[in-house]
Amino acid sequence: MRRELDSLDGLREFLESGVPLAEAVLQGLDVASFEEVLSARELKGALFAGCHLSPAFLLLAVERGALVFPRVEGRGFDPWRSRLYTPEELYRGFDPDRPESYRDTPDWLVYESFVDPATHKPRPGGLDAILAHRLHDLSVSDALAELLDVASGRGVIAIMGGHDRARDDPMYAQVAGLARTLTREGFLLVSGGGPGLMEATNLGAFLAALPDDALGGALALLATARSHRDASWLAAAFRVRARYLPAAPGPYRSIGVPTWFYGHEPPNPFATHVAKYFENSVREEGLLAIATHGVVFAPGNAGTVQEIFQDACQNYYRTHTGHASPMVLLGTHYWDPPAAGVDGPGGRSKPLLPLLRQLAREKGFDHLLLCTDSLEEVASFLRAFRP
User: Fold this and answer.
1) Which of 40, 69, 98 is the last residue of a domain?
2) pTM for the full predicted model
3) How far is 344 from 337, CA to CA, in rounded Å?
């Protein structure tokens, strides 16, 4: 496998090693200060992906047999980015005292170029736009894989759940507390990166280095804007960050994996790393695939139900890791109403556990299913898993 070089220090070290450039991929680098050195090396087989090259060196590299993927400019995003996003980057220019300033941030501007905010439908795009989006998502997946190589700790656990759960809903506090516990124990927590229970996941990880009472203080601040539909939703989150960021996240990280396809739901700003995609199908499959040590499914609607069976399919066919991983359904009254003593479907409940158990029995991962109301049981179940 070629070595990926996405920093000038890495490029300098590689050149000093004397390894042929044909064994490297240079990604997104401004190589102006290295062009003289590179010109003296064998360039055949070298790969320059989205690098800043002078016209003269670009011609030289192509003439000598290098493969050059040019930069794509004027899109408002870098298709060849070599790092995941941060909340600071996506929300650059946001002023909590002016909630409407969100419309000036890179996150909103990219969304608006991709989707019509009035209809929430993707704008028609030509091949050039599609290519830029696909290159971007490929680069994000690559950057995510590199982060997981160095930061996965005891393993990666995802928590999925409804985007519409209010910040003062008891389930929001429960998910945040669970995420905090698992983060403190060395797991890397991942969410879908959006509002609701996704935000609760990243919030819990964000506060893991702080005393327990910090969660109550954060929840009180957040409750002033209960839903992502409130104009001050993002401002409330930034005020929590301002209060607790000096002491958080400490040694802890978490990842949000949102999508501009649902860009009308802004990404929550509590994840330390944001893998934001254009293509939602790539985002969802990848999010579940990296959760090597289990997925917790809190109550949610069609999207969460889809994710449950998507995860079950990955376990059924062992498509990514070669082993199945835990699936936890949090809320028996929601996922298995008969077992919880509820007659019928019970409002918005989703009684899917029997079908899920049947699939698991067929492929021998029924021992990795748990449906419970106990956060302690969830944590114990996940701790005990060994791939």
Assistant:
1) 69
2) 0.95
3) 7
